[in-house]
Specification:
This protein is α+β, with helices and mostly antiparallel strands. The protein has ten helices and 13 strands. Strands 3, 4, 5, 6, 8, 9 and 10 form a seven-stranded mixed β-sheet that branches. A two-stranded antiparallel sheet has the order 1-2. It has a two-stranded antiparallel ribbon with strand order 7-13. The longest helix is centred in the first third of the chain and has 24 residues. The C terminus is likely disordered.
Length: 307
């Protein structure tokens, strides 16, 4: 292990009454290594990013990982996210891999920087995707801020997102005379495009209209009621705060951001991570892991937000 970012990585430890094992620390260390690669690229090209969700809670509450958490989330505004994807093409080298809909066979709207020499198995029956330990990179897009313009843009974003996720549902709605905000002929054209091109249309629209609202956030989870929306003002200034042995960028308005996403985030609660039962290993590549795992021993699992 070349770089050590977690103190006493070779020792089990009790944090907030939770047993943090050496295996968990090794996973944390790998995730910080990936975060440092993101940080390197962002510093080189003057791209702004911040930590989000459980990583932000861990930073401000624990000065490191939430003890029962096992991932790192970062966010970028849509303009910075687009710039990051563009420069990442020449910056990211093996064993690192930037996974998104344009580079892998999964249809999601964010990216993951991962290490292909490791394992974080999310899909045990899928062998044509990369499944290494990762850091999530989320694009922050415009959300409604109470103005008529932003409300219209939000409805258009939703329709374009549905063209990507459920084109048959959009087609049925058009046949039944649904009233739309995006021109009918435009939607008819978009739903006939290949999957990645439909995503590209949605993302380009989000980029072009980023200045049309004072509120931002993760659009699909916000629409589903899973996360809140944030004022752009909360992200105007960035401060670097302690996280394990490094410092990470946190928006100056972090309290308002966390209040929008969580109830009582200031009080530690031992809640299972969203990745709790993934098969994770720093030492075993995901392709070897997939060949070796016994599927009969794996049960279904409920997922929760970590807090």
């Amino acid at each position: 292990m070349s770089n050590i970012y977690v103190k006493d990585i070779d020792k089990d430890e009790i944090r907030n009454g939770f047993l943090v094992t050496t295996d968990r620390k090794k996973i944390w260390n790998k995730e910080i290594e990936l975060l440092m690669e993101i940080d390197r690229i962002c510093r080189k090209y003057n791209i702004k990013y911040v930590v989000l969700y459980g990583t932000m809670i861990g930073t401000v509450r624990h000065k490191g990982f939430i003890p029962w958490d096992d991932d790192i989330d970062v966010g970028m505004t849509r303009p910075d996210y687009v710039r990051f994807l563009n420069v990442a093409k020449q910056e990211i080298k093996r064993p690192y891999f930037l996974k998104n809909i344009y580079t892998d066979n999964r249809n999601f709207n964010f990216s993951k920087l991962m290490d292909d020499t490791t394992s974080a198995i999310e899909f045990i029956d899928v062998h044509n995707i990369h499944q290494g330990i990762f850091v999530d990179i989320f694009p922050l897009d415009v959300l409604p801020d109470g103005t008529e313009r932003a409300e219209v843009i939000d409805r258009m974003c939703r329709e374009l997102w549905m063209c990507f996720m459920t084109p048959h549902q959009v087609a049925d709605g058009l046949k039944n005379g649904a009233i739309t905000n995006v021109a009918r002929h435009t939607l008819e054209r978009i739903i006939e495009l290949p999957l990645r091109e439909r995503m590209s249309v949605y993302e380009e629209f989000c980029l072009n209209h980023f200045d049309d609202s004072s509120a931002i956030g993760l659009q699909p989870p916000f629409w589903c009621g899973d996360v809140g929306k944030y004022s752009k003002d909360s992200f105007k200034e960035i401060r670097y705060m302690d996280f394990e042995t490094i410092k990470v960028p946190v928006p100056s308005g972090y309290e308002a951001i966390l209040d929008a996403d969580y109830n009582d985030w200031r009080i530690p609660k031992n809640v299972p991570s969203t990745h709790e039962l993934e098969l994770m290993s720093v030492d075993i590549p995901y392709d070897e892991m997939l060949k070796a795992i016994n599927r009969d021993l794996l049960d279904s699992v409920e997922f929760y937000w970590e807090a």
